[in-house]
Specification:
alpha/beta, single chain, 10 helices, 10 strands, ten-stranded mixed beta sheet, disordered N terminus
Length: 260
């Protein structure tokens, strides 16, 4: 009896939350929004993803000096705006005064949630933020069923599991995981709902092993020569999801080839 209860407990602990409900056979994730069409991580880039019927927008979450949640990939505003400084050292109001190329504002997390609700899922790259504060905004927007969180650190994983256990989590595949057996051992230690990483890290056997466990494999196709040849190579691995810098073109390619 004790052995049975222990086995049941382990199974419950490792059971992962389901991913947001998909609408297509192949999941297309727009890296920082569709930034082939508009500046990265802006509402305009996210709207482009919605207009092209994509599945997820990827957004990078950070915190301002006064505790507000905003979207910014880098830890500074230098590269993508007309300002200078670290996000953590600038107030929300100061960041909102800045402009990206094309005159766009840096989005507040609340604005992204409002724009995406019922239209496109959010792949939240959890760069630098408080889990409780982020989840409160997700709940307030009624977006609990539309968010997948990519965690960068063990502490983030533990915090999300404690504060919001029903939110699905994703991690990158470590470089030393190179076959199905090691992949299974990794997932035994680090249960997640989805895996990221570079698509070249995966073999077909590894993809099949993950899928057998109910874990989605949605790696990155972020390559300067991204196009049909590389898309075909990735799809041949058995993948049914990719993060891409050319999401609208990729979605069109999938439709043309009867994959989406």
């Amino acid at each position: 009896m004790l052995s049975f209860l222990f086995t049941l407990l382990v199974a419950c602990v490792q059971e992962q939350p389901p991913l947001p409900a998909g609408r297509h056979a192949f999941t297309v994730i727009a890296h920082r929004g569709d930034h082939a069409k508009a500046p990265e991580n802006t509402l305009a880039a996210y709207q482009q993803a919605i207009d092209h019927d994509l599945d997820y927008i990827e957004a990078d979450l950070r915190t301002t000096r006064d505790g507000r949640l905003v979207i910014m990939h880098d830890n500074t505003v230098d590269r993508t705006t007309n300002g200078k400084g670290k996000v953590r050292e600038l107030t929300f109001e100061a960041i909102r005064q800045l402009k990206t190329d094309g005159g766009h504002q840096v989005p507040a997390f609340k604005e992204v949630l409002q724009l995406c609700k019922g239209r496109v899922h959010i792949y939240l790259d959890f760069k630098d933020a408080d889990v409780k504060a982020a989840f409160e905004e997700i709940k307030a927007a009624g977006m609990e069923q539309q968010v997948l969180v990519y965690v960068n650190k063990g502490a983030q994983y533990a915090a999300w599991r404690s504060i919001a256990p029903a939110v699905p989590l994703m991690v990158s595949l470590p470089e030393d995981v190179r076959d199905a057996a090691v992949l299974n051992a990794f997932l035994d230690r680090h249960p997640v709902s989805a895996l990221d990483g570079g698509y070249k890290q995966y073999t077909r056997e590894m993809v099949e092993a993950a899928v057998k466990r109910g874990v989605a494999v949605w790696p990155d196709m972020l390559h300067p020569e991204e196009g049909p040849a590389l898309w075909k190579e990735a799809i041949a691995l058995g993948l049914r999801g990719l993060q891409t810098d050319r999401p609208a073109d990729f979605a069109a390619y999938l439709r043309e080839n009867g994959i989406r």
